[in-house]
Amino acid sequence: MLSATLKQLAEVVGGELRGDPELQISRVFPIDLAQEGDITFITHPKYFSKLESCRASAVILAPGIDAPGRNLLICANPYLAFAKILTFLQGPAPTGKGILTGAWVADSAVLDETVTVHPGAVVGENVTIGPGTVLHPGVVIYADVIIGRNCLLHAGAIVREGCRLADRVILQPSAIIGADGFGFAPDGSSYYKIPQVGIVVLEDDVEIGACSCVDRAVLGETHIRRGTKLDNLVQIGHNVEIGEDTIVVAQSGIAGSTKIGRHCTFGGQSAVAGHLNVGDNVTIGARGGASSNVASDQVVSGVPLLPHKQWLKMTMSLPKVPEMRKELQQLKKRLAELEALIQED
Description:
Elements: E1 4-5, H1 6-13, E2 16-18, E3 24-25, E4 27-28, E5 38-41, E6 58-61, E7 71-74, H2 78-90, E8 98-99, E9 104-105, E10 110-111, E11 116-117, E12 122-123, E13 128-129, E14 134-135, E15 140-141, E16 146-147, E17 152-153, E18 158-159, E19 164-165, E20 170-171, E21 176-179, E22 184-187, E23 190-193, E24 199-202, E25 207-208, E26 213-215, E27 221-224, E28 229-230, E29 235-236, E30 241-242, E31 247-248, E32 253-254, E33 259-260, E34 265-266, E35 271-272, E36 277-278, E37 282-284, E38 289-290, E39 298-301, E40 306-307, H3 308-317, H4 321-344
Parallel strand pairs: 4-5, 5-6, 6-7, 8-11, 9-12, 10-13, 11-14, 12-15, 13-16, 14-17, 15-18, 16-19, 17-20, 18-21, 19-24, 20-25, 21-26, 24-27, 25-28, 26-29, 27-30, 28-31, 29-32, 30-33, 31-34, 32-35, 33-36, 34-37, 35-38, 37-39
Antiparallel strand pairs: 1-3, 2-7, 22-23, 39-40
């Protein structure tokens, strides 16, 4: 674990320093657990009351907030500053250890000398792996895969034949890149398996969560663009394209040949049917389901999708439905009685 002065941390995050520039900081900790030598952060006004009893040596705050007598880093985005400082002080710093005993690497594979391959990992024929990449135990790399620099593949991750990972890609444990897409041609009452001969391409800074699957294309590529993050237990179908800086939260699924724009957010257990287009800057709320194209720049929820505010109003009405149904039945009965009286007159 590193330590740094408050001045150094201010330089890391581009923040304004108030207090002792030579103060030594060794950890980032939550406001209610921080001790002397720690730096903490406040991202919401509701936590400001905890500052009085906080024992941290320094605090990251947003502009316009002050805490007299404390050492402060003033940053426009305290949460981002927290993440950068955490990475600087406590983030992993792997060093190239080479091919360790118990790993198996094909003779035709080309690995930079700074790559680390842990025991139990397998690297197939004609694989290329760039500088600083780490393969943890149980990682399996099929033939003809290309992996860039400073990638991190955790235990049990699998990258199948021909797939390409760019730089700084992270695969969490048991992530599967390039499994066969779910493609079958009906043959009477049975199904004929369609060969899945395409690949998966993951661009720079993509992260794939634990036990998530990105299927290879039938033909061509399944393509996930720069900066996109998949949570755990996410399913991406064959020939899907996902734009830059998109977030897909746990247990979500995107069916085959769908195109997703940039900077989208898919809430937990959301779903998108196949062969659709979802625009840029779209947010689909948790358990939302897209069964038709979704235009850019909107927040939608529910099944079928509705504008989020409209969906909220609808769901707030649901608990009242039994009462409304009873009132409707009473009104229908009363109306029938009135109609009968009119006919008698």
